[in-house]
Amino acid sequence: MAIGSIVSNTAQKNFSLALIQGVSALIMAVFSLPVIFFEPIEIPAISVIVLILSGVANSGTFLFMNKAMKYGPNGLTWAIIQSVFIMPFLMGIIFFGESCSPLRMTGIVIMAVATVGMGVCGKRSQSEKSGGQNKFKW
């Protein structure tokens, strides 16, 4: 939820989320370099390519989320983004033949209800809107 609040606030204040992501990437690179140089491990090239593409896709997701929160209801935007947590369960059941135990179904239902709840609770009334911004209600 902290990430949602940060993205919501950057959208409200027209602050550059790309700058925040860039600085955090540089900080992580600085902390990662000693590990890379002093604990070298062999990583297949395809894994490196997939990791880089995943990072780009993740950054894109946050930039699109920031844009959506700038112009739309933040709670609904956050709920849509968080629905990604339900997908691994469903994909495992549908594509990989995982068993659909009562415990798993309970987890899926709890996550789905919580996601919908965030979307419904995050909507703001017209009187609470300020300048087209829809800040999170925490």
Briefly summarize what is shown:
The chain is mainly alpha-helical and 138 residues long.
What topology does this entry show?
Layout: H1 2-12, H2 17-38, H3 45-71, H4 74-82, H5 87-95, H6 102-121
Structure description:
The chain has helices at 2-12, 17-38, 45-71, 74-82, 87-95, 102-121. The protein has 138 residues and is mainly α. The chain starts with a helix and ends in a 17-residue tail after the last helix. 71% of the residues lie in helices and 0% in strands. Helix 1 packs across helix 3 (45-71). The protein has 6 helices and no strands.
User: Per the principal axes of the C-alpha atoms, what is the gross shape?
Assistant: flat
The ordered H/E elements are: HHHHHH
Instruction: Characterize the biggest β-sheet.
Output: none
Number of helices: 6
Distance between the amino and carboxyl termini: 9 Å
Please count the beta strands (DSSP E, at least 2 residues each): 0
Instruction: Kindly provide the radius of gyration, computed on alpha-carbon positions and rounded to a whole number of angstroms.
Output: 19 Å
- State the assembly state of the protein chains: single chain
Ranges with pLDDT <50 over ≥5 residues? 124-128
The secondary-structure class comes to mainly alpha
Question: Helicity range of the residues?
Answer: over 70%
Q: How confident overall, as mean pLDDT? A: 76
Strand percent estimate: under 5%
